[in-house]
Amino acid sequence: MNAVQRVIIRVDASVAMGMGHLARCVSLANALAQKGTSSIFLIRSHAAGLASLIEANGHAVRLLPDPEHPAAVTSWLPTTWQYDAQQTLEMIGEIGPAQWLVVDHYGLDARWEHMLRAGVPRILAIDDMADRPHDCDLLLDQNLVAEMDTRYQGLVRANCRLLLGPRFALLRPAFAALRRGLAARSGEVRRVLVCFGGSDPSNETVKALGAIQLLATVALTIDVVIGASNPHVDAVSARCRELPGTELHRSVDNMAELMARADLAIGAGGTMNWERCCLGLPTIAMDIADNQVSGLTALARAGALEYLGSAGSVGSVHIARAVTALTREPARMRAMSEAAFALVDGEGSDRVGTALGSIS
Fold first, then answer.
1. Which has the closest alpha carbon to 347: 213, 170, 180, 189?
2. What are the helix (H) ranges across 60-147?
3. Could you give the CA distance from residue 151 to residue 129 in angstroms, rounded to a whole number?
4. Which candidate, 195, 180, 169, 17, places its Cα nearest to that of 105?
5. Is residue 315 left, alpha or beta, with left meaning phi > 0 and alpha meaning psi from -120 to 50?
6. pLDDT digit string (tens) for 200-252?
7. Residue 14 bridge partners (DSSP)
8. Closest to 35 in 3D by CA, of 297, 352, 285
9. CB 15 within 8 A of CB 52
């Protein structure tokens, strides 16, 4: 086992791209800190408002200045990959030696990674799209999708080690800790958790609350969670005030507790899939981005959630019908909980950290 003193993490987040990439990288950095490894995050300056979240977890942040006149080169980067690579190399030169570079970014691929080999000896690429090549030593895809074992063939080097599937899901330690003492769920629905991630640009939260308003004969306690980058705070707050028994939570650090005490979740795909599975939380889900479709489809096939389809084609009435059906089927709720619980044990961050130390 090789000692890893320092890891550099290149990741971004925004309302458009969501918070999932950053959340899972922070979870990995937290696990590495337990092994004595320091992490330094490199994020573009448009994400500077999220620096405090990273620093609150004990990690350093450096900003990559955005160009004065951002170019819409991709939906993920305000500049070219070449310029981003050069900036990253320069920043690594200022920081000093690191054993690993972690990159979690849809806008970057093998060309960027190859250029960065001049600054770091080893690279971990985190991906869940399998739509572009990578030049990396480790590739992590924590998702459950069809043909997972072959989806990166031809996209990585022959000697690249693959970490595939939910057993490598990057979750915070609180999830594994709460899982260990979690009692089997009864299947009854009394408390519902509504959360569509850190940004929710299309305001699916209000749509879900509208669905709950339609359930006039069902008495439910509702927890609503929105992130710091949610652009619809006022609308969500107003709708929460209209619903008795509803509490709004902003930028929470106790999501594991909220999931553990909920009986049913309404939300989207992404990293929260694995958080909910870890705690066996039955879920009604919609995709809010194309990259969530395959994961939600696979989870639905596994019986771990109810997938209603794309959020753009799902209305409050559809959600209300799904909630009503599940409240009447406690046996189905229990089966959904058991299927989800079997997929994720919450130890993925430690497994990935161990893998980093095992490669010389």
1. 170
2. 81-95, 110-116
3. 9
4. 17
5. beta
6. 999 999 999 999 999 976 789 999 999 888 999 999 999 999 999 999 999 89
7. 18
8. 352
9. no
CB 268 within 8 A of CB 288: yes
pTM for this prediction: 0.93
Give the N- to C-terminal CA distance of the chain in Å, as an integer.
8
Q: Which two tokens stand for residue 240?
A: 């929460």
Q: Are 139 and 154 in contact (CB under 8 A)?
A: no
Please return the burial class of 36, using the count of CB atoms within 10 Å of its CB with bins 0-12, 13-18 and 19+: exposed
For 335, phi and psi rounded to 5 degrees? -65, -40
Alpha helices in 120-215 (DSSP H): 173-180, 204-213
Instruction: Report whether 41 contacts 54 (CB < 8 A).
Output: yes
Please name which of 115, 149, 157, 117 lies closest in space to residue 133, comparing C-alpha atoms.
157
Give the residue from 265, 266, 204, 212 showing the smallest Cα distance to 242. 212
Distance CA 340, CA 268 (A): 15
Tell me the per-residue pLDDT of 25-42, one tens digit each, with 9 for 90 and over: 999 999 999 999 999 999
Question: d(Cα 262, Cα 95) in Å, to the nearest integer?
Answer: 43
Tell which residue, 264, 262, 268, 259, has the closest CA to residue 309: 268
